[in-house]
Structures are given as C-alpha cells and as structure tokens.
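Troubleshooting entry. Yesterday's outputs looked truncated, so today I'm pasting the complete records for two proteins to confirm everything comes through intact. If either block looks cut off, that's the bug. Protein one:
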Amino acid sequence: MSDIDLANDYVEVELQTLPLDAWHRARGGRMVPFAGYHMPVQYEGIMAEHLWVRESAGLFDVSHMGQLLLSGDALDDELEKLIPADVKGVQLGQQKYSLLLAENGGILDDLMFSRWPGGIYMVVNGACKWDDIAHLREHLPDAITLNHLEDRALLALQGPKAFDALKRHTIGRWPLDALVFMRGGLFEIAGVEAYISRSGYTGEDGFEISIPADQAEKIADLLCGEPEVKPIGLGARDSLRLEADLPLYGHDLDPETTPIMAALGFAVASKRRREEANFPGATRILMERENGPVSKRVGLLVEGRQPVREGAAVLDADGSEVGKVTSGGFAPTLGAPIAMAYVPAALAEVGTRIQLNQRGKVHEATVAAMPFVSHRYVRGAK
C-alpha cells in the first residue's frame, strides 16, 4: 500500500462507525481509524485484494465521504463562484470532477458533483467534509439550501467484472449499460432505490452506489454473494488509486497547491469559465496555465524493491532538497515501487532522473508518465 498512515489519522477525536461496521468485522475486516471513522484497512491482505480488483470486482465501503444535496435559486451561478467547473453546462445525470478553491487558488478539497432533479448532488472527501460544509454554508447565500445526507451510505463496486455482478440485481428506466463513465441515474437494487454513477477511485470500470444507510447491509450481502465480488479495504483502495494517478486530498493536494501544480488542468478546461475568470484564485491559476507552474506533481518509478514514502525529499544535483514525495508505495500490478512527488518544473519531464532521500538513504528514481496503469473506464456502450 502507499504511505497513508491509516493507524494514526484523527486519533484524537471520538471515532464514528460506518453503517456496515458490524458487517466488516464479521467478515474479518481489520479496522483502523481513518477520517474520523473505524474503517476496514484489509480483509485477506492488501496485495491479494488489489489484484482481485484489477482482475474481477471489489466492494468498497466509502460511507465516510460527505454526500451533499444543494438546491435553490441561482445555484449554478453561486456554485461557480467557489469551483472552476462549468456547472451550468452539466446536464441531468452528468457527473463532473471539480475543486473547492481557496482565494489564493489553492485546493481546499476535490469533489464530484452531479445534476439531480431540482439540485446538485455533491460528494466530498470524508477527512474534510465538515470544513467543506462550513465553507459552502459561509460562502453560499441563504437562498441556497445545503442538506448533508447523513442517512445515506455510499458503496463503490470496482473492477472489470463489476458491471456483470451489478446488472443481475439492477432495474431502472434504462438498462445499466446505458450508463457510461461519469454518468448516473436512479435505479433499484433488489427493491432498494439507489443513485448509481459509473465512476470510482481505482482506474477500473465501476460504480458508486448511494443508498439509504439502513439498507447498506442488504445490498452489501447481495453484491458480495456474487462470485466476482469480494469486500476490499482501504489499503488496496490506496494502492489502486496511486497506480491510476488519482491524487489524494491531504497528501497530494492541499491549500498551498493549485490545480496546475497538481497536474489537474482539466478541472479548469471550460473556455467560458477561463474567460470569465470569476472563480477563486483565477488570476494565479490562469497565469500558471499559460506560463507553467514553478513546481509540478509527477509520477516516479523507484529503482529497487523498497518503497519510498510520503515526506521523502527530492534532491537536486547538489544534494539540496527541492521537492517532496507526497504518496509512495509498492505497485502490485507493476511489481515495483512507485511514487508521486512535487518537483521543480525543470525536473518534471518524463525520463528525468531523480534522487530521493528517505531518512538518510538515497534512492534513484525516474519521472514516469502517469497513470502507471492504464484506466479502463467505459466511455461508450458496453
């Protein structure tokens, strides 16, 4: 797995339990503190779980994430003052990735949002959902209603066989295969109403499933009763996302990092939004987009077998520290250690040799094209 210190995140707060807490424990899930919750880090082992998702399908419990529903007059206009996405252009059922930005252009969180009938459904990171909710309530006018959907669970079914397993139990106004990557809609799974989007955090085809929390055990049992599906923990989720070039907030993204530095320029791809330049930090972000950032997030292939972890220093030719590793670990699919790091722009070209210092030991690495493992999203009819 990568370098997330799962056992030490948020240990000073009273931990909450997921709707499936007892379900995880009954299946041998090893529970650790993460994002203020007891969460399963693994069941049978991170390596085995990682490879199972790449080959078949895994069920992740991501109910710690914040599920929000925004509604009200002029919602699109008001939300565009806080995020750089083209909210107005998002059609019913369409999903988009975006960023909650600070005034300096730094990233307060990354998020997904979808157009629902009568509003915007938004999923934010569990570790900072309360800060996000406070930020949205502070900056959105009183005419906008924000509902935190605390009575809902969120499950992610990921892997090349996820479609086959889910289709057997799903009915809706249209067939499940009508959903392609970053589209969603209302369905029923064994009589339970579910909002299903074709998306996820592994680089594989898959689905995120929002359901009433009191129905989570029923749906988890149903899906894990399929031969393709096993429950998967946080450890494999982390190594999967690292291979797929999916940055993690609080590690690879933070309030001092802009979208351009983070190699997330696609999040400011709308010509209209760039021309209007009315999102937080627009001047800085657009200048970096035009001229390039001072430093940039890159992928690294690390020589040898030992992973390099978060916090390791990136060295220049003189041995001085010029950057930091933000995520690192062993990549089961590749059979080699990989990492993400921020390096000076002059060192960001693919193929550049890099030295890393981890606790006094120097490791050799090479800047690599990302993702390390190709995405397998379904962008057309299956």
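Protein two, checking that the full record survives here as well:
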Amino acid sequence: MEALNGTDLPVIDLSLFPSQNVDQNQLESFEFKKLRQACQELGFFLVINHGVDPTLIQAVDGRIRDMFALPTEVKNRAIFPIFNTGYGPSVVDDAAKDSIPENMSFPWDHLLPNSVEKISAKLWPQGNPPFCEELNAYGAQIKELCQRILKLLVWSLGVDVSSQSVSELFEKSFGNVRMNYYDKCTDKEMISKAHTDVSFFTILYQDDIGGLQIRNKQGKWMDSKPLPGSFVFNVGDILQMWSNGRYRNAEHRVVYGKSNRNRLSMAYFFDLPNEFEIRCPKETIDEEHPQLYKVVTKDVVLIYEHRNVI
C-alpha cells in the first residue's frame, strides 16, 4: 500500500498546559482541544518542551549505539527467558516485510528488578556503571513525563483526577523501554511488522532518519517527519479501552533500509500490571458514547487483543 508522503504530526507543547488543577474554561482551550483531536483522529502526536534533559538523551543515544555495536556473541549473553526483557536478534522474512529489528528491552520496576544493571552485567565484565547511571536517569525522567501526560489525558476526557480509579493508574503504572536498532541496507527496503501497542501509551525517541508510518482512519499509511528535540506519543490498546474508544490506538510500522546510517529508536511503554482491571470511567460513557468494552484485566487484552468488545 502506497504511503502518503511527508506528514507532520500534531505538535503538543507541554509548556502551554497547567500543572495543577484545571477549570472548564481551560479544558475548552485551544491546546486541550488540539490534544483531544490528536488522540481521537490519529492517535499520535509530537511532544515538545517535555522537560527531559537533551544532553542526557544524546548521551543515552550514544550509549545504546555502542551497545548494539558489540559482537553478536556478547549480545547473545543478554538473552533472557522473560518476555520483553534483554536482547532480541533481528528477524527478517524472505519478502523483507513483517521484520523485527535488533532490540534490547529494559523493564523498569517490573518483570526483572534492577534490569539495567543485570543486563549490563551480561554485556560488560565490570557492568559498565556509566551506562547504567545514564540509562536509569533517562528512565526516571521519561517516567515523570509519562505521569505528567497521563494527568493531561485524564483531564482532557473530563475525568476526575482525584478518583480512586485514576489514583490506581498513577500508583500501579510502570515502564518498559525497548531499544530498536534498524540495520542499514543497501539492496532492499525493509518493513517492520505493523502493530498497535499493548500498553496504556508509548513515548518514543527516534533519531532524524525517519521511517515511522501510521495508518490513518482511511486505511492509508502516512509518513511522519521527525522533529528534533521532540518525542512521539501514541495511544495504546489500554488507553483506547479505558477512554471508551474515544482515543484511537493507530496501527503503525517502520520502513527502513537503503540508508548510509543505522536507525535508532527508544520506545518507553507506559503500562499496567496484567491483573489490572480496565474499566471505562463513568465520565466517558453517555448517550452519544455507550460503553464499548467489557471490564477485563490486562492479561485478557494480551490474549484476545480487541475481541473483548461488548
């Protein structure tokens, strides 16, 4: 399917939003309307003035590239029998479609406690303390950004931030970062497997090479332009369900290869435990928006994907 070229994603400037309570006038402001529209129509937007240290971002970028430059036999030592943890070799089918890039996953506060240190110890004899320090600092700043964006999303839906169900979102959420390394190719174009994210939402760092494509409501693949200094936000499966279908989890993929540089992205999945009960807040249900989903736990979503509709 041919892609639409050069699409600019909506840009959300976090400096223009309140950090404390909001009133109805603020919820009807241009910025909140823009946020809602981006989540409803495309499910993707760019985040600027996000507060994550740009020097730290570039330092982590360099550390991760050095990590992927290690010999294959060294990286293979970081393969763990735990889902979404440690090293994953690239997988490419014969048609160069539905490929999986080389990757490394670090689950913070979940699955493997102290995962950065444990994975680092598999790769370097001394564990590489500078790598661990910078990567943990990056994870902490991204988690803080996620908490800030979560509050804006809750407000944007007219949901009471102080309610017990929302408090549980803040208390029980955790992060899992996946570093993706797309090998340059000179002979053919590669396409990663199209998917949606089984998470609440995702914060993505990507370099300036580009290649991210998003499927719009009309079924067309859209090329998205990288914006220096920004993060990409996308709605996950859980947020689509929690918002009662008001916010859209768009299918996406990466087209890469035929470049003189390798592409790097770092996806931080803001997620919830498998036993977490996903229930639409009452504020998201009305005559125009009847309840779309059964109340289920996260593990049911993992197994049955989107077939748990009412």
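Both blocks look complete. Sanity check on protein two: The chain has one domain: 3-304.
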